[in-house]
Amino acid sequence: MEPAGFFRRIFSLIYDTLFVLAIVISLSLLLNIINNGAPKPGTFLSIIQLIIATASGPLFYCYFWHKNEGQTLGMQAWKIKLVTCEGEALVFKTSLTRCFLSFISFLIIGLGYFWIIIDKKNRSWSDIFTNTRVIDIRKSL
Question: What is the rounded average pLDDT of the residues 63-89?
């Protein structure tokens, strides 16, 4: 199985980010409509707003990786797929760990993603630490 390259992975990430932003904006708008305006700080609805903002991304990725055989919508478009190195089914804990490590990689000026260019197996930090890899399914058929 051929590893997916840097640009396919980054473009897939951008594509998925647009979907996650659409989800966050839609749910936030719905919350504002229900509340008749933006929630006031410190209220229950402001906590709901925080949960929407922080949980939408990880839930999106975990859902698609589990229910869609290792592919998010962006991964489908760019013909790449997340697999474990052992060929086993991806477990929820691994998915959450990948999400957390990806967030950390992004915060550190994207170094975890740029590592794909340096690594001979095209692995990001989240691939290395969770023993997973992203493959190019066009070359794996």
Answer: 93
Burial class of residue 13 (count of CB atoms within 10 Å of its CB; 0-12, 13-18, 19+): middle
Amino acid at the residue 85: C
CA distance 112 to 128: 10
Q: What is the pTM of this model?
A: 0.89
CA distances from 21 to 76, 82, 100, 113 (A): 18, 22, 18, 20
Task: List, in sequence order, every beta strand (DSSP E) within the chain.
Answer: 80-84, 132-136
Give residue-wise pLDDT tens across range 108-117: 999 999 999 9
Q: What is the DSSP string of 35-51?
A: HTSSPPTTSHHHHHHHH
φ, ψ of residue 42 in degrees (nearest 5): 85, 0
For residue 94, give the H/E element and its range: helix 92-107
Cα separation, 133 vs 112, in Å, equals 14
Nearest to 70 by CA among 1, 24, 125: 1
Residue 88: count of CB within 10 angstroms of its CB:
10
